[in-house]
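Exercise 7 asks you to align residues with tokens for two separate proteins.
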Amino acid sequence: MIPEVAAARSTVGPTLAAFGRRSYIAGHVPNGVDALARWIIEPAALAPGTAMPGMGVSPADARAMAIYLHAQR
């Protein structure tokens, strides 16, 4: 779930509310905008075996998503 994004109501993963406060992405990758953008594009490159799929978005869109999620405090 992503606050204020009505279409993002999945119950598969954890809520993304307050994502900017988290120290790590998926418990392994230090949480920063650049790392998060890479995670969105190609999560298995950062955490082999992860269940998180690549989102199929452009690098620019992934960066915009990462900036938005980091603002969630």
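Second protein for Exercise 7:
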Amino acid sequence: MIVTARELAVLFVEALDLEDIDPQQVDPNASLFGEGLGLDSLDMLEISLVIQQNFGLKIKADNPDVEQIFGSLENLANYINSNPTSSA
């Protein structure tokens, strides 16, 4: 199964109750944190849990690439697609 950035946007908007954000309008290359979607570290934990529950992929905070992985929806989708059953 190939995961797209758009599918992740829908999943995250629902999981994080981001009622004021239309997932279809989210730029897949925008930063998830700070200036982009404006998510914070608690949101990152929630996203990690959603990824683990939906895709069976555990992304650990001590992963040296964690900032890049969570850099954008596109980066995250690429990571999920490249690591479908492994633990990171």
